[in-house]
Amino acid sequence: MRILLAEDDPDLSRQLKASLSDAGYVVDHAPDGEEAHFLGDTEPYDCIILDLGLPKIDGVSVLERWRREGKTTPVLILTARGAWSDKVSGFDAGADDYLTKPFHTEELLARLRALVRRAAGHAQPMLVCGGVRLDPRAARASVNGEPLRLTSLEYRLLHYLMMHQNRVISRTELVEHLYDQDFDRDSNTIEVFMGRLRKKIGNERIETVRGLGYRLKPLHDEVSDL
Amino acid sequence: MTDGTGATDSPKAVSRKTGGAVLLRLFRRLTRKDSLVGRLIRLASVWFIFSLVITGIALTAYFHQAALQRFQLNVKQIADNLYADTDIDHSGKVVTPPFFDTRTNRVYSGLYWQVSEIDAKGAISDAARSRSLWNEHIPIPATTLGEAKARIGEGVFYDSIGPEGEPLRVAAVYSKIDGRAFVFLAAEDRAPMDKDVRRFALITAAALIVLALGSLVAIFIQVRVGLRPLFDLTDEIAHIQGGTQQRLLKSYPAEITPVATQLNAFLDYSQEVVERQRMHVGNLAHALKTPLAVLMASAGSQDGELPEIMRKQAETMRAQVDHHLRRARAAARSQALGERTPVEPVLDELAVMLEQVFQDKGVIIDWRTPDDLAFRGEKQDLQEIAGNLLENASIWCRKKVRITAEFNPVDQSMSLAIEDDGPGLDEARFDEVLKRGARLDESVPGSGLGLSIVDELVRAYGGTLTFGKSQIGGLKVLAKLPANLDGAAA
Predict the structure, then answer these.
(1) Whether ipTM exceeds 0.85
(2) Is there a contact between B185 and B116 (Cβ–Cβ < 8 Å)?
(3) What angle do CA B114, B115, B117 make, to 5 degrees?
(4) CB distance from A82 to chain B under 8 Å?
């Protein structure tokens, strides 16, 4: 397992590198944002530990660049700023997990294991519907290249619609496929989530077929692209 | 009026809503030394009432004078006729002209004339008198006689008392005929004229009082309307304090513009100070936390007594840093004014993020909020409150977390309910958790649940934090926070 550690503090880097090596990872170290970006861009890492307070280019910008360039490597961000606003902006930039400094090394190792395991899911084909793309392996979706931030129910809804695109799906069918046995099976809920999903991917991509259900379809000018 | 003078009134006066009490309150309010309205009205009333009194007196005096002049014209004419047409016949007898005014013939009619002769020794004897006088005599004071002598043929006026005790106005003309000295007198009862003058004075006074009252009302309205920008300013400042707006928005007249501009500059400055303070605090956090992480990491990798002490102390330091940073942040926040944060995007972001963090567990966060609900406070604080509560719920739940925001129009607040389907908390421990929050100053930094952060924040916003059992099985945390509904949907 290859890991990139982007951290500017030399003492902390040394400590972490030692602990990570002991845990069986191969560790590359980047002391600033520029080098971190270059390494992350060129080397096939299984996971990246990214400090947000890096010199030259800050962590959030590095992360945003990777995600814009289509890198899906799981990223765990380290931040001294424990406020939720900082965590949220890290996630908006495309982080997969966060750890607030100072932290216990064991905690870091546990989070890392989870991230690597998660990323090593079965390869599944990318789902595409016009400008909407959904990567089931990384559980990521995007519209026209812009990453989408979806809650798990919204993601499930989009996933199901993408798998059955251009077909009318009834509300009952959606309820049955989206919820566990014990969830509120209130069909009004579907409308709430459908509303939010439309807000995020664009209203006109999901068509309401009166009395029958919903249909996901590419936009008119996107059909020719396929 | 927007000042708080009502509070100084006795409760009795307030509860009795009679007109008298209202007037009394208004009066007290206007006579307060520190009321600008009262001051302006007092000043205006003083000179206005003063000038009205002067006007009243002048008008009455003028009317009196004019009436008297007209009145005197009549008696003077009679006296002049008397003087002009009286003759002495060859026997030395005084012959008076005939008068057509019948009043001079009716006894005690109120119109009299008299011709008195003054002999060489100065003794006065009546040579002739109108029939109306009958046997009475109009006296001539010595001083008046002197004056009349000094102005021969011109006549003087004086007051006297008539045969029936009526007040008389008398015209006296002194003249000599054939070497004999005479005083020609004409007198008329002046009571009707005096009555007219009194009536005029009364009517004038009444009219002026009505004018004064009306003008006082007009002055009051004028002052209130004129000072409205000041009251607007007070209202706006109250709104800023209440957090519903950030700056002064209305345009003000030239006289207050400098105040408004300065106030806005001051508000901007305070905003900037808050931002700067927060930035410093953040920098301090970053500066301290990385060394702490180093300490913890190096101590953690070794066994022994010293690393153990280091680990424990580093842990304590971290908790202390967190605690004091939060306090500094809270202090910075209490100065920030008028922020408003739409709730929906915050909940969406947090739900997306925490579901990803707890992906292995398969946590599903179901969030519900009205589209236009807005938290009356800073985004960072709502993120902190909801983030911590959601993180707790995600840790303790089996799979389901529910966060529901509802608007309560009665007290302009929102109820933020965070529920999970986990094991929940014993009711006995609710108090324990809350108590820990209640003793803020002594509270041990970093309670295991992160609830003390939330409790501090919620309290800072004047809200409440309560615990209960959730319908989906686990703990339900209910945070009540200030809110309104017109937040622009982001």
Answers:
(1) no
(2) yes
(3) 140
(4) yes
3-state secondary structure of A44: coil
Identify the three-state secondary structure at position B457.
Answer: helix
Question: Residues A173, A157: contact at Cβ < 8 Å?
Answer: no
Q: Which residues of B71-105 are buried (b: 16+ CB within 10 A; e: fewer)?
A: bbeebbebbbbbbeebeeeeeeebebeebeeeebe
- Return the residue in B326, B353, B365, B418 with the most chain A beta carbons within 10 A, the one to mutate for interface testing: B353
Grade residue B67 by pLDDT with cuts at 50, 70 and 90: very high
| Both tokens assigned to B366 | 């179901």
φ, ψ of residue B444 in degrees (nearest 5): -65, 130
A121 contacts on B by Cβ (under 8 Å): none
Residues A192-221 have pLDDT tens digits of: 888 888 888 888 888 888 888 888 888 877
- Other CB atoms within 10 Å distance of the CB of residue B480: 19
Helix (H, G, I), strand (E, B) or coil at A121: coil
Residue from B288, B290, B312 to probe the interface with A (highest A Cβ count within 10 Å): B290
pLDDT tens column, B355-410: 888 887 888 888 888 888 888 888 888 888 899 889 888 888 888 888 999 999 88
Match 């206005």 to its residue by tokens: B48
β-strands A97-100, A75-79 pairing: parallel
Residue window 93-132, chain A: list those with CB within 8 Å of chain B. Answer: 96-98, 101-106, 114, 117-118
Closest CA to B389 of B295, B476, B281: B476
